[in-house]
Amino acid sequence: MTALEQLLAIARNTLFESIRQPIVLVVAAIATLLIILSNPLAAYTLEDDQRMFVDIALSTMFIASAIVAAFIATNVLSREIENKTVLTVVSKPVSRPTFVLGKYLGVAVALLLVVLYLAFAFMLAEMHGVLKTVRTPIHQPVLVFSTIAVLLGVGGATWANYFYGKSFSSTALLLTTPLAAVAYLLALLWGPDWSTNTTDQILGRGIVDLYTVGVDPIFEGQLWIAIGMMTLAVLVIAAIALAASTRLGQVLTLCVTLGVLLLGLLSDWLFARKISELAKLAATAPEQFGAGLRIESAFLNAAYAIVPNFQVFWLADAVNQDRSIPMAYISQTVPYGLCMIGAALCIAVSLFQRREVG
User: Fold this and answer.
1) Mean pLDDT over all residues of the chain?
2) Residue 26's closest CA among 73, 76, 61, 64?
């Protein structure tokens, strides 16, 4: 087998190994329930209920995806090292970098599947909208199509598990995700009362006229961009978890991953704020900027550069403020995320290269 074939084979096995873990289905089901419950709970803000729903639901998606990323990225490598099953792979002509990269590729595809399912669940709930008053119509197509998708997915997984011995969790996820996509696409075509939506309404053409009567475009492209950026943050978390699992056990790996995530979410407050204060002090009062403050400034700048800043991937605020996400921002943030993933994978390969697995 060539290196590419080995990489794809390891990635495929890792993908199915990841989505078979019960934690994936449990977290996805709980996150779906919380997203649905966020819809009626957001109706009590007394202001902009829909914005509150988007904040709560997107936060739920991110936390659930981060938990799944930490768990499956931790298990796919550390568990094989602890059980010595990794010996059956590295003893063959499979290089350790290929093994690590294949593991990450499989985890990444599994995470994309989970995030995609949660994204369709969120977008269906967002399309339904918050019931602000008793006169607000229920979006019947959303309820009908989403219910059918869930029933078909769960029913098909139950059938495959009972008659063919297939894994229920992986089959349910593999079936429900495309069915949820079909439900979302079909729901775009009809209004709450089954009236047909025009192409202009779906895509938001003539948006000035639509906004003057208080009607938003049905297809929320900005929300999909925000979900895509959030997915990139989840992939960064998975790479960090995989790097930590090359040397640490499952519990310590989870602690390190969640610690880095917390630091990354507070990066601007912990590092950038202090860096700005020191920069102002150096500009206004250079005589007070001694050696101690220079060392502190260098340390803060290094920490700010090393710790992934997960705030840059969070675009819900821009969406809620009806601000378009500029392409210039995306063109800077995506390479930043890819660089963080690449750096974490380089560390993972370096640590695993000298790891005793026998």
Assistant:
1) 84
2) 64
Give the integer Cα–Cα distance in Å for 203 and 199.
Answer: 6
> Could you give the C-alpha distances from 55 to 142, 185, 277, 321, in angstroms and in order?
20, 23, 30, 11
The token duo for 27 is: 């977290």
Q: Which residue has the higher pLDDT, 119 or 91?
A: 119
Instruction: Name 196's bridge partners.
Output: 190
Q: What angle do CA 109, 186, 130 make, to 5 degrees?
A: 90
- CB-CB contact of 80 with 106 (8 Å): no
Q: Which of helix, strand or coil describes residue 166? A: coil
As a whole number of angstroms, the distance between CA 310 and CA 145 comes to 34
The phi and psi torsions of 87 (rounded to 5 degrees) equal -60, -35
* Dist CA 167 CA 340 (whole Å): 34
Sign of the Cα pseudo-torsion (91, 97, 100, 101, in order): negative
Sequence-ordered alpha helix ranges (H) in 95-139: 96-128
Q: Are 330 and 225 in contact (CB under 8 A)?
A: yes
Per the document, the length of the chain is: 358
**What confidence tens digit (pLDDT) does each residue in 222-274 have?**
889 999 999 999 999 999 999 988 888 778 888 888 899 998 888 888 888 88
pLDDT at 45 over 50: yes
**pLDDT computed for residue 94 by the predictor:** 72
Task: List, in order, residues 6 or more apart from 84 with CB less than 8 Å away.
Answer: 357, 358
**Alpha-helix runs per DSSP H in the chain:** 3-19, 22-41, 49-83, 87-90, 96-128, 140-164, 168-188, 199-203, 207-212, 221-245, 250-265, 267, 273-284, 291-306, 316-320, 327-353
